[in-house]
Design goal:
245 residues, alpha/beta, 8-stranded mixed beta sheet, 7 helices, globular
Length: 245
């Protein structure tokens, strides 16, 4: 089996996910670019290869069981193991005026869609990739969360946390709680799992509003995906340190 480490980044065809893939590739990782859209996926792979990254495309819809199973089989066939998994794919869900989601009028189908991608999708992918991660000497899992998932910050009237997002924000709180449960399950193993907040990054996800670049948003995830043995697990980080739950 190759000594080159392999990473899989979901939702890696653009934005933060792409920059995470580029950053890991720059550190010498072979990178699987997970994405649903074939054209965008292959374009991203081409760009990464032009930068010298050993990248390969992974057709992956995190909401589809068969797609996830096939993705795991592809990674196994091409790499034999997985050293880092970054669960980056996510959706905000339909927004109302002012880019908010009013809980009093929230469409339950919007909530289901957001949770299926942002939470259940992470479980699907993580569990499918676990056999490959367990073959690594230092497996790392990073779940891309958001500070809007911090209940401490959301509940503090003195903290500016942005608009009300009754589907998206709770999905990230759910993801954070799930990260802790995985960490507890992995106690006594070499698997480290953490959540990362990229900050408010200007991407098409939010209509390109935000003071941070995708490269800046990718930094914490890259650091957590490359933690040394004995590093933190079951925690939530941003550039400045730990984010309160």
């Amino acid at each position: 089996m190759s000594e080159t480490k392999t990473a899989l980044v979901t939702g890696a065809n653009k934005g933060i996910g792409y920059e995470i893939a580029a950053g890991l590739g720059g550190l010498g990782y072979r990178v699987g670019v997970g994405a649903r859209d074939e054209s965008r996926r292959e374009t991203a792979v081409g760009k990464l290869r032009a930068q010298g990254v050993d990248a390969f495309g992974v057709p992956l819809d995190v909401t589809d069981d068969r797609s996830v199973t096939d993705a795991a089989a592809l990674v196994e066939r091409l790499a034999g193991r997985l050293d880092a998994l970054v669960n980056n794919a996510g959706v905000a869900g339909e927004m109302g005026p002012g880019w908010d989601q009013d809980p009093t009028t929230l469409d339950l189908e919007v909530l289901r869609t957001v949770v299926d991608t942002n939470v259940m999708g992470v479980v699907r992918v993580t569990n499918a990739m676990l056999p490959l991660l367990r073959r690594s000497a230092s497996p790392r899992i990073v779940n891309i969360s958001s500070s809007v998932g911090s209940l401490t910050r959301q509940a503090d009237p003195a903290t500016e946390i942005g608009p009300i997002m009754a589907a998206y924000a709770p999905s990230k709180s759910f993801l954070n709680a799930l990260t802790v449960q995985y960490a507890r399950q992995f106690t006594g193993t070499n698997i480290l799992i953490n959540a990362a907040c990229p900050g408010l990054v200007a991407t098409d996800f939010n209509g390109f509003h935000g003071p941070r670049t995708p490269e800046q948003g990718a930094a914490t995830a890259i650091r957590l995906a490359t933690l040394p043995d004995g590093g933190p697990t079951g925690s939530f980080f941003e550039d400045d340190g730990v984010v309160p739950w």
